[in-house]
Write a structure and sequence with these properties.
The protein is of the alpha/beta class. The protein contains twelve helices and ten strands.
Amino acid sequence: MNCKICGNEAIFKLKNHNLKLCEEDFKVFLDRQFRRAVKEGKMFNREGTILIAVSGGKDSLLCWHLINKLAYKSEGVFLDLGIEGFSKASEEKISNFAKERGLKFQILKIEELAGLDIKTMLKKKRFCSVCGMIKRYWLNRYAYENGFNVIATGHNLDDESATLLGNILHWQLGYIKRQSPSLSSFGSKLVSRVKPLYKMNEYEIRTYADLEKIDYLNDDCPFKKGNTQDIYKEALNLIESYSPGTKNSFLFQFLDKKGALFGEEGKLDLRECSRCGMLTTQEVCAYCKLIEKENNRYEFQKK
């Protein structure tokens, strides 16, 4: 088996691209995928500093590694939910990664910021959806309050194609229309969000991270069990095993045709939340509603 680029012995077989590559050309290929994603999505430039949401896993650390490799200015931020054992292990991986490369990162302890026992609160609800909403709120708020103009996350091809499948199965047209690897700011308090790894699948990311000797956390969040996103990933993986390239075609063709299907994305009708002042489509944002509900429940239980 020979490398399609240089003709030397191939080590990696990327069925979704119909490519056989040696180690060096595998890295070059993924570097190009990353740069193409950044360029096509107009994700960021040399001005300002990129805020990277890091969890200690392979995706976010590789994203930070590649951004740093291209010499963009960046800082990391870790949202600590205080999950016993897991959050501490995540922080250690991030700290070691940043120290080795001379990079800065900030820890946001969500329990302190929210003023509530986040672990107890989340156990009573659909953990992943509520957790995601809390993290999106504080990522945006931190970025806005500290002058960042873009937030980069480690969402990959598997994440994005699974999200698209879930939204289509439930015909969530609002989410389908807005799904994009590059979400522009709709107001001064709503920071742009980008996903530079959206062209890479989990196998490619894990392999590249291992080749670059990135020490990442290999464990899943203990609350992740039963997450519907994983069910959609399994379904797509099954189809992919019979028809390589399905995920690429599913996501990329959707992104190419989205404008023709839905027209240009219009501006959202945003206003400042009457509680926290961040932007929302309602009088009170979803985050403040959640916190108020939990505070009321806590006060009721004390009586």
